[in-house]
Amino acid sequence: MKNYIVIDMGGTRLKIGFFRNTQLMKCNVVSSCAQENFENTLRIFDAEIKALIELQNASSIAGIGLSMPGIIDTKDNKILSINDKYSDAVSFDLNSWAKEHWN
Which residue ranges make up each domain of the chain? Predict the structure, then answer.
């Protein structure tokens, strides 16, 4: 059995889902405040992901999927371009962030 986290960064809401294999087990929706920068949004993700993992009694995560309003270099897992709200995310190393927090 594999567990996955899926994140959708919308303009007004952030949706963080926990999947077990192909089944959505739980989805948390939180407000996306206009004044929040990408670093603060990552803190929200961190807290929500930890809560979902604990709630689902998961011991590991096989992967994290992220949907966001921008252009992602999927080879190097870096953000190349994004809307103004998260402009501090450009060149952010998603791979390192995921490994640091969830590996």
Answer: 3-102
Q: Is the pTM of this model over 0.90?
A: no
Instruction: Please enumerate in sequence order all residues whose Cβ is within 8 A of that of 59, keeping only pairs 6 or more positions apart, or say none.
Output: none
Average pLDDT over residues 51-71: 91
Q: Does domain 3-102 have CATH number 3.40.50.261?
A: no
DSSP H helices in the chain: 38-55, 94-102
The pLDDT value recorded for residue 99 is 83
d(CA 22, CA 30): 23
Check whether 34 has a pLDDT greater than 70.
no
Measure the CA–CA gap between 84 and 89, rounded to whole angstroms.
10
What is the per-residue DSSP string for 45-59? HHHHHHHHHHHTT-S
Rounded to whole angstroms, how far apart are CA atoms 14 and 30?
Answer: 5
The Cα 102–Cα 58 span in angstroms is 12
